[in-house]
Amino acid sequence: MSTLQTIATGSGVGGLLPLLTAIVQRPHWSAGIKQIVAVAMALIAGVTTVISSGGLDLLQHGWLTFGTIGAVIAASQAAYDLIWKPSSLAPAIESATTPKKALTAE
């Protein structure tokens, strides 16, 4: 895949990543912890996208890897702010996947 295709794929992955992130996150976590988890998952998703696009050899191309990770982070944040949060889908997934004991412990 070319650099542009890999970055475009990263953007697509980033658009759906908030839904996967919502499975891991919990409603009672602080905003800072949620942000750390979201960025960590975006880093993992970005590296995974690069590897799946052309194997481990593509990780040697720093700009491609950083560009793809950046695309995943930017797309995931934009998708969360513009689509998933206003639709209440991501917060609903957070609540649905949180163990009931964690919700009542507060």
Written overview of the protein:
By secondary structure, this protein is an all-alpha fold. The protein has one domain (3-100). The chain contains five helices and no strands. The chain has helices at residues 3-24, 31-54, 62-84, 89-97, 100-104. The longest helix is centred in the middle third of the chain and has 24 residues, at 31-54. The N and C termini lie far apart (48 Å).
Task: Please sum up the structure shown.
The chain contains five helices and no strands. With 106 residues, it is mainly alpha-helical.
**Number of helices, counting only DSSP H or I runs of 4 residues or more:** 5
How large is the radius of gyration?
15 Å
Largest sheet features: none
Overall shape? elongated
Give the total of domains: 1
Beta-strand fraction estimate: under 5%
The tally of strands reads 0
Structural class by sheet pairing and helices: mainly alpha
- Distance N to C terminus: 48 Å
Estimated helix fraction: over 70%
The averaged pLDDT comes out at 86
Question: Ranges with pLDDT <50 over ≥5 residues?
Answer: none
Question: Secondary-structure element order, as H and E?
Answer: HHHHH
